[in-house]
Amino acid sequence: MEATLEEIETFLSTPKTLVIVGASTNVSKAGNYVPEFLKNRGFTIIPVNPFAESILGVNTLKDLSELKESVDGIIIYRRPELVDEVITNAVDMKIPWIWLPTGVTSPNGPKITKDFMYVENRCPLALIKSWINQGKWTN
């Protein structure tokens, strides 16, 4: 089910463990600077990237199927034609929160994730910064 803004705020209000599919070593890409921001706020990140040994000082998984621990959510930085497969895998793994950041969309996402919390085309970094700027959260 698509998460409301209130549900998203509650989810992001305390550090969680998040798997980041499409995490990047390139500091100018959202797949790097968003996970770094979340890590600096106390979140545990598990990067997935088949081409990197580590990202942000964390050893990477080569594929989502290598994930052996329980996580609170997944953020997917992948090309549109690859997103549905990752969403389906996340649902099969029973990852409770499935997040497509700004610019990443899936016409099938809401159907695939009907029993899971689903966020599409929203940036967690931008949301948190807006709540800080509004005085709702502390820096």
Q: How many strands in all?
A: 7
Roughly what fraction of the amino acids lie in strands?
A: 15-25%
- The CATH topology: Rossmann fold
Please name the fourth-level CATH homologous superfamily: NAD(P)-binding Rossmann-like Domain
Number of contiguous helices = 5
Percentage of residues in helical conformation: 25-40%
| Overall average residue pLDDT | 96
Principal-axis shape: globular
Q: What is the terminal-to-terminal distance?
A: 30 Å
Going by CATH, the architecture would be 3-Layer(aba) Sandwich
Task: Tell me the structural class.
Answer: alpha/beta
- How many discrete domains? 1
In the CATH scheme, the class would be Alpha Beta
Strand ordering within the main sheet: 2-1-5-6-7
**H-E order:** HEHEEEEHEHEH
Low-confidence stretches are none
Describe this protein's structure:
The protein has 139 residues and is of the alpha/beta class. It has a single domain, classed as 3-Layer(aba) Sandwich (Rossmann fold), CATH 3.40.50. Helices cover 33% and strands 19% of the residues. The protein has helices at 5-12, 30-40, 80-92, 109-112, 124-133, and strands at 17-21, 44-48, 54-55, 58-59, 73-76, 97-100, 117-120. The strands form two sheets. Strands 2-1-5-6-7 form a five-stranded parallel β-sheet, with helices on both faces. A hairpin with a 2-residue loop joins strand 3 (54-55) and strand 4 (58-59). The relative contact order is 0.19.
